[in-house]
């Protein structure tokens, strides 16, 4: 994941891996949607908050329309659903159309709402059938199942990010994945997977309670806030 610097007093980015919306802290991953907020005072003295949309490109965050942002979110959401067999958090079906299109509402916060239209053409499949086959997301930070952290039980797992072995006893991060409907994990080195967990409350990770105080400290030092 390549990060792009972005300075803004008040901005959020939509994490396509978790569909949570953490605050921007100096940088965002390339390809993500960025919401920049500004407080404006109207002539009447009333204060309102405006949102500007952007997408993180290699050379910075570029302004785009909300429609374009929604189209990118739609693509990220389909990828998420296909890879995880699950609904992203904060998303629900609002309407089903006779032509097979389905309208979803994605609300990453109380103030932000995207209407996502999935058509059979975009999905390459029957939308209702596909959505019915997905597991319901729980509300654990946008993850249908929480991510896991643990010292590697053997030296035989391979990091899905860098494809190198994870040595026995080294902390590894488990990305929930589903095989035949069963929960399993794709492992990453702590260092390689740390950005996936940016902003996630560490005590919500599966396995956190079993870590030693030293391991908890190591985790806290590596995972960005
Ligand atoms: Zn790695």
Strand content is: 25-35%
- The sequence of SSEs as H and E is EEEEEEHEEEHHEEEHH
Output the CATH class name of the largest domain.
Alpha Beta
| Count of individual helical segments | 5
Under CATH, the homologous superfamily of the largest domain reads: Zinc finger, PARP-type
Bound molecules: zinc ion
How would you characterize this protein structure?
The chain is an alpha+beta fold and 225 residues long. It has three domains: 3-65, no CATH class; 68-133, Signal recognition particle alu RNA binding heterodimer, srp9/1, CATH 3.30.720; 148-222, Zinc finger, PARP-type (first zn-finger domain of poly(adp-ribose) polymerase-1, 2-Layer Sandwich), CATH 3.30.1740.10. The protein has helices at 66-84, 120-123, 127-133, 190-193, 213-222, and strands at 3-5, 11-14, 27-29, 33-41, 47-57, 60-64, 91-96, 102-106, 114-118, 148-151, 171-179, 182-189. The strands form four sheets. A four-stranded antiparallel β-sheet has the order 2-4-5-6, with helices on one face. A hairpin with a 7-residue loop joins strand 8 (102-106) and strand 9 (114-118). It is globular and about 60 Å long. Mean pLDDT is 88; it is low at 138-143. Residues 159, 161-162, 164, 188-189, 192 line the site of zinc ion.
Q: Which features does this protein show?
A:
three-stranded antiparallel sheet; Signal recognition particle alu RNA binding heterodimer, srp9/1; alpha+beta; 5 helices; binds zinc ion; 225 residues; first zn-finger domain of poly(adp-ribose) polymerase-1; single chain
């Amino acid at each position: 994941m390549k990060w792009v610097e972005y300075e803004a007093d008040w901005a959020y980015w939509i994490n396509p891996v978790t569909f949570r919306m953490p605050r921007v802290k100096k940088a965002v991953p390339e390809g993500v949607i960025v919401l920049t907020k500004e407080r404006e005072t109207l002539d009447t003295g009333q204060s309102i908050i405006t949102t500007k949309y952007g997408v993180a490109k290699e050379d910075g965050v570029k302004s785009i329309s909300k429609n374009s942002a929604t189209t990118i979110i739609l693509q990220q959401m389909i990828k998420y659903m296909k890879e995880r067999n699950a609904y992203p958090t904060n998303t629900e079906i609002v309407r089903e159309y006779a032509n097979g299109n389905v309208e979803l509402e994605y609300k990453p916060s109380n103030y932000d709402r995207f209407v996502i239209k999935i058509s059979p053409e975009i999905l390459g499949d029957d939308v209702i059938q596909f959505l019915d086959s997905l597991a319901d997301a729980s509300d654990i930070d946008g993850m249908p199942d929480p991510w896991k952290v643990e010292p590697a039980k053997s030296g035989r797992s391979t990091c899905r990010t860098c494809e190198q072995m994870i040595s026995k006893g080294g902390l590894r991060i488990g990305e929930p994945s589903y095989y035949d409907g069963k929960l399993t994990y794709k492992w990453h080195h702590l260092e390689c997977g740390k950005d996936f967990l940016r902003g996630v409350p560490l005590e919500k990770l599966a396995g956190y309670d079993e870590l030693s105080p030293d391991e908890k400290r190591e985790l806290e030092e590596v995972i960005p806030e």
